[in-house]
Design a protein that fits this description.
Number of strands: 18
Oligomer: single chain
Largest sheet: 7 strands, mixed
Order of helices and strands: EEEHEHHEEEHEEEEEEEHEHEHEE
Distance between the termini: 9 Å
Strand content: 25-35%
Number of helices: 7
């Protein structure tokens, strides 16, 4: 029973020079029972790349958006030019507007999805809110509401949300879990709640070993000590593969490029099988 994933867009390009890249993430996922997209990139570039990658968007039944930052959600409206998804899976608090705060000049930069709950109703697309565990099919689950137990996994203060622009704790972030042999793979958008917090929660809720971590880990703003401890702890937890990209950061990319036994770096156009 094979599960496959194609990286339709990511921050970096690959050997396939016809594919466009942008700051964002979008994955095309096929299980024996479902075809869907996990995250939508920033602009709709992912859907234009899909044609070059033989990713049939007409087969897409639904979308999953890891959180409501523009680089994961902004491309969703453009998906409707290719397919009419019946539903989109989101986390609790997805509709709070998101911003980045810059103390210099006391300014805010809008980082939100760019569409609303009212838009979904107009488009006749159902919003499905994910709690602790939502089963998609026999090979795929979604999870949210992650406990925050790792003291070092902090969120930068510049991320704020809501009308009052309070500090964002990313309660809306969800992850995808795919069956991998007798264990699972955890697929993340940005891991704002902390990749160790998320992997630990997946293991506890499903009672299965986590063999792979795929996607963004938002370690680009972490210091070397946190990166060292995070990678070491993931290996201690029994990971066999890390395939990281997007917001994982240059330091993590360099580590994986130098030590391919630890994992690999994903770029636009790459494909994984589980």
């Amino acid at each position: 029973m094979t599960v496959s994933m194609k990286v339709m867009v990511e921050d970096t390009g690959s050997e396939h020079l016809a594919l466009g890249k942008e700051h964002g993430l979008s994955l095309y996922v096929e299980t024996p029972q479902s075809t869907f997209v996990f995250d939508c990139g920033a602009s709709g570039l992912a859907w234009r790349n899909a044609a070059f990658m033989r990713a049939d968007l007409k087969k897409v039944g639904f979308a999953v958006i890891s959180h409501s930052h523009y680089d994961h959600a902004g491309g969703f409206p453009a998906l409707r030019e290719y397919v009419s998804p019946s539903s989109v899976y989101i986390g609790h608090g997805f509709w709070q507007e998101k911003f980045a705060f810059a103390p210099e000049g006391n300014k805010y930069t809008y980082l939100g999805a760019g569409f609303s709950a009212e838009d979904l109703k107009e488009w006749n697309i159902k919003a499905c809110e994910v709690g602790e565990l939502t089963k998609l099919d026999d090979s795929a689950w979604l999870m949210g509401n992650f406990p925050r137990n790792e003291a070092m996994e902090t969120i930068p203060e510049r991320f704020v949300c809501g009308e009052d622009k309070h500090r964002d704790d990313f309660q809306d972030e969800i992850c995808l879990v795919l069956r991998e042999g007798d264990g699972v793979a955890v697929v993340t958008g940005c891991s704002h709640p902390g990749i160790l917090n998320m992997v630990t929660a997946v293991h506890k809720r499903l009672g299965l070993p986590v063999y792979s971590v795929v996607g963004g880990t938002h370690l680009k703003e972490a210091d070397a000590e946190r990166i060292d401890k995070t990678l070491a702890e993931l290996h201690r937890m029994g990971l066999k593969r890390m395939a990281l990209c997007h917001c994982s950061g240059d330091a993590v990319r360099s580590r994986l490029e130098q030590d391919t036994a630890a994992g690999c770096v994903l770029s636009t156009g790459d494909m994984l099988e589980f």
